[in-house]
């Protein structure tokens, strides 16, 4: 434990956890599985009375950093990059709100002002995307 190889594997696991949940939310089940296995391992470390309590605390903190914080930061970074690069209008714009569409270059609503609240006498347009 706490060797460079151990840290590398723990960090790689955290990185791939972020990748699995970024691809599809089915990756959430992988995230839960790894979390349950981690709890099981921490419980067995805690039961070993020959080790000092701080050893368990160090294991806990290492796993928090590598298996919770690292995937959360990477997941947020993936979406930040995604939204910075993909800012042009496309054929799926109708799925998104008008406020989001106003941020897409090439969209008919690009840079349109979107009021936060509807005022009395305002013209309101309702749209339905699904055709039954």
From TrEMBL:
Protein name: Protein O-mannosyl-transferase 2
Family of this protein: Belongs to the glycosyltransferase 39 family.
Highest classification ranks of the organism: Eukaryota, Metazoa, Ecdysozoa, Arthropoda, Hexapoda
Membrane topology note: Multi-pass membrane protein
Predominant place of localization: membrane
ArnT-like N-terminal domain mapped to chain residues: 2-86
Coiled-coil blocks: none
GO terms assigned for molecular function: dolichyl-phosphate-mannose-protein mannosyltransferase activity
Keyword Transferase: yes
Recorded metabolic or biological pathway in which this protein acts: Protein modification; protein glycosylation
Protein localization: Endomembrane system
GO CC aspect terms: endoplasmic reticulum; membrane
Species name: Diaphorina citri
Pfam families: PMT (PF02366)
Keywords recorded for this protein, A-Z: Glycosyltransferase, Membrane, Transferase, Transmembrane, Transmembrane helix
TM helices/strands, residue ranges: 6-39, 60-81
InterPro entries according to UniProt: ArnT-like_N (IPR003342), PMT-like (IPR027005)
């Amino acid at each position: 434990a706490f060797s460079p190889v151990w840290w590398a594997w723990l960090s790689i696991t955290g990185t791939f956890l972020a990748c699995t949940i970024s691809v599809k939310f089915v990756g959430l089940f992988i995230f839960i599985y790894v979390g349950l296995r981690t709890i099981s391992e921490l419980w067995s470390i805690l039961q070993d009375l020959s080790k000092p309590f701080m050893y368990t605390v160090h294991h806990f903190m290492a796993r928090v950093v590598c298996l919770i914080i690292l995937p959360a930061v990477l997941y947020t970074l993936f979406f930040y990059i995604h939204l910075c690069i993909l800012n042009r209008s496309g054929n799926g714009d109708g799925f998104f709100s008008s406020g989001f569409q106003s941020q897409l270059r090439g969209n008919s609503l690009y840079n349109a002002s979107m009021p936060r609240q509807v005022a009395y006498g305002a013209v309101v347009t309702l749209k339905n995307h699904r055709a039954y």
